[in-house]
Design goal:
By secondary structure, the chain is α+β, with helices and mostly antiparallel strands. It has two domains: 5-84 and 250-287, no CATH class; 87-248, Gcn5-related N-acetyltransferase (GNAT) (Aminopeptidase, 3-Layer(aba) Sandwich), CATH 3.40.630. Helices cover 30% and strands 32% of the residues. The protein has ten helices and 13 strands. Strands 1, 2, 3, 4, 5, 6, 7, 8, 9, 10, 11, 12 and 13 form a 13-stranded mixed β-sheet that branches. A hairpin with a 3-residue loop joins strand 1 and strand 2. Helix 4 (105-120) packs across helix 8 (210-225). The protein is globular, with a radius of gyration of 21 Å. It starts with a helix and ends in a 12-residue tail after the last strand.
Length: 299
Protein backbone atom coordinates (compact mmCIF):
# COMPACT_ATOMS: atom_id res chain seq x y z
CA UNK A 1 0.00 0.00 0.00
CA UNK A 2 1.39 3.41 -0.96
CA UNK A 3 1.93 6.25 1.45
CA UNK A 4 -0.72 8.94 1.23
CA UNK A 5 0.10 12.63 1.01
CA UNK A 6 -1.30 13.15 4.50
CA UNK A 7 0.93 10.43 5.93
CA UNK A 8 3.92 12.10 4.29
CA UNK A 9 2.98 15.39 5.91
CA UNK A 10 1.54 17.46 3.05
CA UNK A 11 -1.88 18.61 4.27
CA UNK A 12 -2.78 21.79 2.42
CA UNK A 13 -1.67 23.72 -0.64
CA UNK A 14 -2.99 27.06 -1.80
CA UNK A 15 -1.60 29.78 -4.09
CA UNK A 16 -0.53 33.07 -2.55
CA UNK A 17 0.49 36.32 -4.17
CA UNK A 18 3.65 36.47 -6.24
CA UNK A 19 3.65 32.83 -7.34
CA UNK A 20 4.09 31.25 -3.97
CA UNK A 21 2.36 28.45 -2.14
CA UNK A 22 1.89 27.77 1.57
CA UNK A 23 2.05 24.20 2.86
CA UNK A 24 1.58 22.69 6.28
CA UNK A 25 4.26 20.05 6.64
CA UNK A 26 5.26 17.44 9.14
CA UNK A 27 9.04 17.91 9.09
CA UNK A 28 9.74 14.52 10.64
CA UNK A 29 7.44 12.86 8.09
CA UNK A 30 9.13 14.62 5.17
CA UNK A 31 12.53 13.41 6.37
CA UNK A 32 11.27 9.83 6.68
CA UNK A 33 11.38 9.86 10.48
CA UNK A 34 7.64 9.96 11.08
CA UNK A 35 7.51 6.48 12.64
CA UNK A 36 10.39 7.21 15.02
CA UNK A 37 9.88 10.82 16.11
CA UNK A 38 6.66 12.68 16.99
CA UNK A 39 5.04 14.84 14.32
CA UNK A 40 6.59 18.31 14.09
CA UNK A 41 4.14 20.52 12.19
CA UNK A 42 5.53 23.64 10.50
CA UNK A 43 4.34 25.94 7.74
CA UNK A 44 6.52 26.08 4.67
CA UNK A 45 6.14 28.73 2.01
CA UNK A 46 8.11 28.64 -1.23
CA UNK A 47 7.89 30.44 -4.54
CA UNK A 48 7.61 28.95 -8.01
CA UNK A 49 9.35 31.71 -9.94
CA UNK A 50 12.74 31.17 -8.24
CA UNK A 51 13.84 34.70 -9.08
CA UNK A 52 12.06 37.53 -7.30
CA UNK A 53 11.36 37.69 -3.55
CA UNK A 54 7.89 36.69 -2.45
CA UNK A 55 5.48 38.02 0.13
CA UNK A 56 5.82 36.08 3.38
CA UNK A 57 2.42 35.18 4.76
CA UNK A 58 1.98 36.20 8.43
CA UNK A 59 0.96 32.63 9.25
CA UNK A 60 4.20 31.15 7.97
CA UNK A 61 6.73 30.30 10.65
CA UNK A 62 9.27 28.75 8.29
CA UNK A 63 9.91 29.65 4.66
CA UNK A 64 11.77 27.89 1.89
CA UNK A 65 12.99 30.61 -0.46
CA UNK A 66 14.61 29.37 -3.67
CA UNK A 67 17.04 31.42 -5.76
CA UNK A 68 19.71 30.91 -8.35
CA UNK A 69 23.02 30.43 -6.59
CA UNK A 70 24.42 33.80 -7.59
CA UNK A 71 21.51 35.77 -6.10
CA UNK A 72 21.99 36.76 -2.42
CA UNK A 73 19.71 34.97 -0.02
CA UNK A 74 17.36 36.37 2.57
CA UNK A 75 18.95 38.18 5.55
CA UNK A 76 16.87 35.89 7.77
CA UNK A 77 18.19 32.69 6.23
CA UNK A 78 19.44 30.12 8.70
CA UNK A 79 19.90 26.97 6.63
CA UNK A 80 20.66 26.48 2.93
CA UNK A 81 19.84 23.51 0.73
CA UNK A 82 21.64 23.21 -2.61
CA UNK A 83 20.07 21.74 -5.72
CA UNK A 84 20.27 21.79 -9.51
CA UNK A 85 17.58 23.14 -11.81
CA UNK A 86 17.21 22.52 -15.54
CA UNK A 87 16.83 25.52 -17.80
CA UNK A 88 17.01 26.55 -21.47
CA UNK A 89 17.99 29.99 -22.75
CA UNK A 90 15.83 30.77 -25.81
CA UNK A 91 16.66 34.46 -26.10
CA UNK A 92 18.73 33.97 -29.27
CA UNK A 93 15.89 32.40 -31.31
CA UNK A 94 13.58 34.62 -33.34
CA UNK A 95 11.62 31.65 -34.79
CA UNK A 96 11.18 28.07 -33.65
CA UNK A 97 12.74 26.71 -36.86
CA UNK A 98 16.05 28.13 -35.67
CA UNK A 99 15.95 25.90 -32.60
CA UNK A 100 16.17 22.40 -34.19
CA UNK A 101 18.61 23.77 -36.77
CA UNK A 102 20.96 24.83 -33.96
CA UNK A 103 20.99 21.45 -32.20
CA UNK A 104 23.93 19.08 -32.15
CA UNK A 105 23.57 15.84 -34.09
CA UNK A 106 22.69 13.90 -30.92
CA UNK A 107 20.04 16.40 -29.78
CA UNK A 108 18.61 16.70 -33.28
CA UNK A 109 18.24 12.90 -33.52
CA UNK A 110 16.29 12.95 -30.24
CA UNK A 111 14.10 15.75 -31.56
CA UNK A 112 13.29 14.01 -34.88
CA UNK A 113 12.65 10.66 -33.18
CA UNK A 114 10.26 12.26 -30.67
CA UNK A 115 8.43 14.15 -33.42
CA UNK A 116 8.00 11.07 -35.62
CA UNK A 117 6.84 8.80 -32.78
CA UNK A 118 4.40 11.35 -31.34
CA UNK A 119 2.76 12.26 -34.64
CA UNK A 120 2.62 8.71 -35.99
CA UNK A 121 0.78 7.70 -32.81
CA UNK A 122 -1.91 10.22 -33.75
CA UNK A 123 -1.40 12.77 -30.98
CA UNK A 124 -1.75 16.56 -31.01
CA UNK A 125 -0.73 19.38 -28.66
CA UNK A 126 -2.60 22.44 -27.43
CA UNK A 127 -1.68 25.27 -25.06
CA UNK A 128 -4.54 26.58 -22.91
CA UNK A 129 -3.86 30.12 -21.72
CA UNK A 130 -7.37 30.94 -20.47
CA UNK A 131 -9.38 29.34 -17.66
CA UNK A 132 -8.89 25.55 -17.78
CA UNK A 133 -11.24 24.66 -14.91
CA UNK A 134 -13.10 22.14 -17.09
CA UNK A 135 -9.95 20.04 -17.33
CA UNK A 136 -8.98 20.10 -13.64
CA UNK A 137 -10.26 16.60 -12.79
CA UNK A 138 -8.31 15.02 -15.66
CA UNK A 139 -5.22 17.11 -14.91
CA UNK A 140 -5.28 16.07 -11.27
CA UNK A 141 -5.72 12.39 -12.18
CA UNK A 142 -2.72 12.53 -14.54
CA UNK A 143 -0.68 14.38 -11.91
CA UNK A 144 -1.51 11.69 -9.33
CA UNK A 145 -0.21 9.01 -11.73
CA UNK A 146 3.21 10.68 -11.70
CA UNK A 147 3.09 11.44 -7.96
CA UNK A 148 2.27 7.82 -7.19
CA UNK A 149 5.14 6.57 -9.34
CA UNK A 150 7.63 8.81 -7.56
CA UNK A 151 6.04 8.43 -4.12
CA UNK A 152 5.60 12.13 -3.38
CA UNK A 153 2.28 13.92 -3.81
CA UNK A 154 2.75 17.63 -3.24
CA UNK A 155 -0.49 19.27 -4.48
CA UNK A 156 -4.15 18.55 -3.76
CA UNK A 157 -7.06 19.07 -6.13
CA UNK A 158 -7.99 22.38 -4.48
CA UNK A 159 -4.63 23.74 -5.60
CA UNK A 160 -5.37 22.88 -9.24
CA UNK A 161 -8.90 24.30 -9.04
CA UNK A 162 -7.48 27.58 -7.79
CA UNK A 163 -4.62 28.01 -10.27
CA UNK A 164 -6.82 27.00 -13.24
CA UNK A 165 -8.60 30.36 -12.89
CA UNK A 166 -5.43 32.46 -12.81
CA UNK A 167 -3.86 34.17 -15.82
CA UNK A 168 -0.29 33.32 -14.81
CA UNK A 169 -0.91 29.54 -14.82
CA UNK A 170 -1.25 27.84 -18.20
CA UNK A 171 -1.63 24.30 -19.44
CA UNK A 172 0.12 22.50 -22.29
CA UNK A 173 -1.55 19.18 -23.17
CA UNK A 174 -0.97 16.16 -25.40
CA UNK A 175 -4.23 14.74 -26.79
CA UNK A 176 -5.08 11.28 -28.15
CA UNK A 177 -8.54 10.44 -29.52
CA UNK A 178 -10.08 13.44 -27.77
CA UNK A 179 -8.54 12.75 -24.34
CA UNK A 180 -5.66 14.44 -22.53
CA UNK A 181 -2.92 11.84 -22.06
CA UNK A 182 -0.13 14.11 -20.81
CA UNK A 183 0.20 17.67 -19.53
CA UNK A 184 2.53 20.24 -17.97
CA UNK A 185 1.27 22.99 -15.67
CA UNK A 186 3.08 26.21 -16.61
CA UNK A 187 3.64 29.27 -14.45
CA UNK A 188 4.60 32.58 -16.00
CA UNK A 189 7.03 35.05 -14.52
CA UNK A 190 8.40 37.23 -17.28
CA UNK A 191 10.87 36.76 -18.81
CA UNK A 192 10.77 33.12 -17.60
CA UNK A 193 8.15 30.43 -17.98
CA UNK A 194 8.25 27.50 -15.55
CA UNK A 195 6.97 23.95 -15.81
CA UNK A 196 5.98 23.27 -12.20
CA UNK A 197 4.51 19.77 -12.50
CA UNK A 198 3.48 17.18 -15.06
CA UNK A 199 0.89 14.45 -15.46
CA UNK A 200 0.95 11.27 -17.55
CA UNK A 201 -1.34 8.49 -18.75
CA UNK A 202 1.44 5.92 -18.87
CA UNK A 203 -0.57 3.56 -21.11
CA UNK A 204 -0.19 6.06 -23.95
CA UNK A 205 2.39 8.71 -23.04
CA UNK A 206 5.44 6.46 -22.86
CA UNK A 207 4.61 4.81 -26.19
CA UNK A 208 4.17 8.12 -28.03
CA UNK A 209 7.09 9.98 -26.37
CA UNK A 210 4.66 12.56 -24.98
CA UNK A 211 7.02 13.69 -22.22
CA UNK A 212 9.81 14.57 -24.65
CA UNK A 213 7.57 16.10 -27.30
CA UNK A 214 5.71 18.28 -24.81
CA UNK A 215 9.05 19.81 -23.83
CA UNK A 216 9.79 20.60 -27.47
CA UNK A 217 6.32 22.09 -27.89
CA UNK A 218 6.88 24.14 -24.73
CA UNK A 219 10.03 25.51 -26.35
CA UNK A 220 8.04 26.27 -29.51
CA UNK A 221 5.36 28.08 -27.52
CA UNK A 222 7.91 30.11 -25.55
CA UNK A 223 9.79 31.19 -28.70
CA UNK A 224 6.71 32.00 -30.77
CA UNK A 225 5.05 33.92 -27.95
CA UNK A 226 8.07 36.26 -27.95
CA UNK A 227 7.65 37.10 -24.27
CA UNK A 228 10.16 34.73 -22.68
CA UNK A 229 13.92 34.45 -22.53
CA UNK A 230 14.19 31.33 -20.36
CA UNK A 231 12.36 28.07 -19.75
CA UNK A 232 12.73 26.45 -16.33
CA UNK A 233 11.67 22.79 -16.07
CA UNK A 234 12.44 21.97 -12.46
CA UNK A 235 14.88 19.67 -10.68
CA UNK A 236 14.08 16.04 -11.45
CA UNK A 237 14.54 13.73 -14.48
CA UNK A 238 17.96 15.13 -15.30
CA UNK A 239 18.97 12.58 -17.97
CA UNK A 240 15.84 13.05 -20.07
CA UNK A 241 15.99 16.83 -19.79
CA UNK A 242 19.65 16.86 -20.77
CA UNK A 243 18.68 14.94 -23.90
CA UNK A 244 16.09 17.60 -24.75
CA UNK A 245 18.78 20.31 -24.57
CA UNK A 246 18.18 21.75 -21.10
CA UNK A 247 21.22 22.69 -19.05
CA UNK A 248 21.84 22.37 -15.28
CA UNK A 249 21.82 25.58 -13.23
CA UNK A 250 23.27 25.49 -9.68
CA UNK A 251 20.72 26.86 -7.23
CA UNK A 252 20.09 27.02 -3.53
CA UNK A 253 17.09 27.10 -1.25
CA UNK A 254 17.27 29.32 1.83
CA UNK A 255 15.27 28.26 4.86
CA UNK A 256 14.12 31.32 6.81
CA UNK A 257 12.49 31.18 10.24
CA UNK A 258 10.54 33.91 12.00
CA UNK A 259 10.78 32.24 15.38
CA UNK A 260 14.00 33.18 17.23
CA UNK A 261 14.17 29.69 18.74
CA UNK A 262 13.69 27.94 15.37
CA UNK A 263 16.15 30.28 13.68
CA UNK A 264 18.80 29.68 16.37
CA UNK A 265 18.29 25.92 16.17
CA UNK A 266 18.62 25.84 12.37
CA UNK A 267 21.72 28.04 12.44
CA UNK A 268 23.24 25.69 15.01
CA UNK A 269 22.64 22.51 13.00
CA UNK A 270 23.82 24.22 9.79
CA UNK A 271 27.29 24.26 11.35
CA UNK A 272 27.29 20.45 11.30
CA UNK A 273 24.87 19.41 8.54
CA UNK A 274 24.51 20.24 4.83
CA UNK A 275 21.37 19.70 2.76
CA UNK A 276 21.00 18.75 -0.90
CA UNK A 277 17.97 17.94 -3.04
CA UNK A 278 18.71 14.92 -5.21
CA UNK A 279 17.68 14.57 -8.91
CA UNK A 280 14.60 12.61 -7.81
CA UNK A 281 13.54 15.55 -5.59
CA UNK A 282 14.44 13.94 -2.25
CA UNK A 283 16.11 15.79 0.62
CA UNK A 284 19.53 14.37 1.55
CA UNK A 285 21.28 15.51 4.72
CA UNK A 286 25.01 15.00 5.22
CA UNK A 287 27.39 15.74 8.09
CA UNK A 288 29.92 18.47 7.38
CA UNK A 289 33.62 17.78 7.69
CA UNK A 290 34.80 19.26 10.96
CA UNK A 291 37.61 21.81 10.88
CA UNK A 292 41.00 20.22 11.45
CA UNK A 293 41.44 21.80 14.88
CA UNK A 294 38.12 20.29 16.01
CA UNK A 295 38.61 16.87 14.51
CA UNK A 296 39.57 14.00 16.80
CA UNK A 297 43.08 12.81 16.05
CA UNK A 298 43.60 9.12 16.46
CA UNK A 299 46.91 8.11 18.01
Amino acid sequence: MGTSSKEKGWLTARPLEKYSSLHELSLTGWMGLGKILPKLPIFIEFNFNLHSPFRIDPKASLAFQTHDAYIPGSPLKCFTITHTRWRADISSYSTFDEFPASLSRWHRCNYLKSEKTFKNYGCTVTVIEDDWTEHVDVVYKLYCNVAKKHGDKLYDICFFREIAKRDDYKLICAWFEGEIISMFVLEEELPTIHSICCGMDYDHSSRCYAYSWLHYELIRFAIETKKYKNIDVGMSADNSKRGICFSPVPSHMDICAKSVITRSFLKFISSFVTGTITPDAKLKLKLRKLPRHLAVVKK
